[in-house]
Design brief:
- With about 200 residues, the protein is an alpha+beta fold.
- The chain folds into 2 domains: about 5-135, Impact, N-terminal domain (Ribosomal Protein S5, domain 2), CATH 3.30.230.30; about 135-200, Alpha-Beta Plaits, CATH 3.30.70.240.
- The protein contains 6 helices and 11 strands.
- Strands 2-3-6-4-5 form a 5-stranded antiparallel sheet, with helices on both faces.
- Strand 2 and strand 3 (about 25-30) form a beta hairpin.
- It is elongated.
- It starts with 5 loop residues before the first strand and ends with a strand.
């Protein structure tokens, strides 16, 4: 059972192939965490399928209050990107990109035919991966004087934080991730350490 501290995503890439009146629709879904990653995946698909007529896609990211986008990539408006996005909604997943590559078979499918084809290819790609439940993460930036390094390290271990980066110059500075369910308690304990500057980032 999901809680407010969890979300669904996929653990690995999924693929599908759907054929309709000579056209071939190749569906892909990918776990993603940023628009930069999405851009790289889409560019890779276009290199992989240089003769394809269209590479349509949709994605939903957790960033910035659930960021989403869809693209028809030259297909009639609303016949590709939106049906793909609706399949992401149906899966209840986030941090996921679904793309459908179309090779035109010489026969026009019409609006309803296109919608059905893109919807089906997207749905089957999602079916061919694994949906998992993940804990939502919070991120802290923590700056501290060196004489408090031991206490900071102790709290990092106590709350099972993952250190993402560290820097030691005039002071210590670390960036960490923590489960959202533990974040408020951890933030309060770090804030109680005199001379420690903790910020949510």
């Amino acid at each position: 059972m999901e809680t407010e501290f969890q979300f669904k995503t996929i653990s690995k890439r999924g693929e599908s192939i759907y054929r309709e009146k000579g056209s071939r629709f190749i569906g892909y879904c990918f776990p993603v965490t940023s628009t930069t990653e999405i851009k790289n995946v889409l560019e890779s698909l276009k290199v992989q399928h240089p003769d394809a007529r269209h590479v349509c896609y949709a994605y939903v990211l957790r960033a910035n209050g659930k960021e989403e986008r869809s693209s028809d990539d030259g297909e009639p408006a609303g016949t590709a990107g939106k049906p793909i996005l609706n399949q992401i909604y149906s899966s209840d997943c986030e941090n996921m990109l679904v793309a459908v590559v179309r090779y035109f078979g010489g026969v026009k499918l019409g609006t309803s035919g296109l919608i059905h084809a893109y919807k089906t290819a997207a749905a089957q790609a999602i079916e061919n991966t694994e949906i998992i439940t993940c804990e939502i993460q919070e991120f802290f930036s923590i700056t501290f004087p060196f004489h408090l390094e031991g206490k900071v390290t102790s709290l990092v271990k106590k709350f099972r934080m993952q250190i993402l980066s560290k820097e030691f110059q005039s002071q210590g500075h670390i960036r960490v991730s923590i489960l959202l369910s533990e974040a408020e308690t951890a933030y309060a304990e770090f804030s109680n350490l005199y001379e420690v500057d903790v910020k949510k980032v």
